[in-house]
Q: What sequence folds into this?
């Protein structure tokens, strides 16, 4: 199952972006509820390796399951 970035928990640190082996973590185009940048995961190309979850310093920002309702995407 793909991983999810909870948009309003993410702080835009972007450690996950460089760590993702398939490049499926993309920048949002607005601020989140914390007023920071956020990233989102393309579910169709995520290979569920879990590296983003391991490297993210923000507790609860990455979830090891597909949770579309928590993840904003640029409109
Ligand atoms: S999910 Fe974590 S590592 Fe990735 S951008 Fe958000 S805060 Fe940073
Ligand atoms: S689980 Fe792996 S492939 Fe999916 S977004 Fe995270 S680092 Fe990328």
A:
């Amino acid at each position: 199952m793909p991983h999810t970035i909870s948009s309003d928990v993410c702080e835009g640190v972007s450690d996950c972006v460089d760590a993702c082996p398939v490049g499926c973590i993309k920048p949002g185009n607005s601020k989140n509820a914390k007023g920071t940048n956020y990233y989102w995961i393309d579910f169709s190309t995520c290979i569920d390796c879990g590296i983003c979850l391991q490297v993210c310093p923000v507790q609860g920002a990455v979830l090891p399951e597909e949770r579309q309702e928590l993840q904003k995407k640029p409109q």
Observations:
- The longest strand covers residues 25-27.
